[in-house]
């Protein structure tokens, strides 16, 4: 009996140790008074989107998880293909907390593209289709 309960205690201690190790590795809250990195996921275009060059479309991203203090709230949207982000800027100098922004689809070779939304850091849309030339 005594033996069993001491085994149980060691096991409980072991679990607690794991819990604290994990919670230190992944802190639940960021420290106060610190600016937070915000990388909002792009929700439109998605992987079913087809755009034609010259059209105006409303790029949309999810701002529901935005922290109070954002490191860089100035947004920029660029185009990307095959892991290369082009030095072609589709929109810039807008507030990332808007959650959406109109862009004009550039004239490109038809194919699969992604958008990159920059704020603190780049965030890629899924691949979608642009019909150009
Ligand atoms: C946000 O920044 C302001 C001014 O620096 C500060 O007073 C406030 O406590 C910060 N809030 C959070 C949640 O970090
Ligand atoms: C498109 O995205 C949806 C939702 O994220 C996913 O379920 C689906 O498998 C994706 N389709 C393709 C072709 O990647
Ligand atoms: C954004 O584009 C839509 C058409 O896709 C248009 O109706 C709307 O007026 C545009 N808004 C701005 C602010 O340019
Ligand atoms: C873009 O789409 C969002 C979400 O659907 C909408 O709230 C917003 O008014 C649209 N903006 C423009 C400029 O069309």
Taking pLDDT < 50 over at least 5 consecutive residues as the criterion, the unreliable ranges are 13-33
Radius of gyration: 23 Å
Residues in β-strands, percent: 35-45%
First-to-last CA distance: 80 Å
Largest sheet composition: 6 strands, mixed
Q: Architecture of the domain at 42-131, according to CATH? A: Distorted Sandwich
Shape: elongated
Q: CATH class of the domain at 42-131, please?
A: Mainly Beta
Helix-and-strand structural type: alpha+beta
Attached small molecules: 2-acetamido-2-deoxy-beta-D-glucopyranose
Roughly what is the average pLDDT, rounded to an integer? 81
Number of helices: 1
Series of secondary-structure elements, N-terminal to C-terminal: HEEEEEEEEE
Superfamily (CATH H level) name of the domain at 42-131: chitin-binding protein cbp21
Described by its quaternary structure, the protein is single chain
Helix content: 10-25%
Counted beta strands: 9
CATH topology of the domain at 42-131: Coagulation Factor XIII, Chain A, domain 1
Keywords: Signal
Signal peptide: 1-25
What does the model show?
This protein is of the alpha+beta class and 133 residues long. The chain has a domain at 42-131: chitin-binding protein cbp21 (Coagulation Factor XIII, Chain A, domain 1). The protein has one helix at 2-25; strands at residues 42-44, 50-52, 56-61, 74-81, 84-95, 100-104, 111-118, 122-124, 128-131. Strands 2, 4, 5, 7, 8 and 9 form a six-stranded mixed sheet that branches. A hairpin with a 2-residue loop joins strand 4 and strand 5. The N and C termini lie far apart (80 Å). Mean pLDDT is 81; it is low at 13-33. One 2-acetamido-2-deoxy-beta-D-glucopyranose binds at residues 56-58, 102. Residues 56-58, 102 line the site of one 2-acetamido-2-deoxy-beta-D-glucopyranose. Residues 1-25 form the signal peptide. Keywords: Signal.
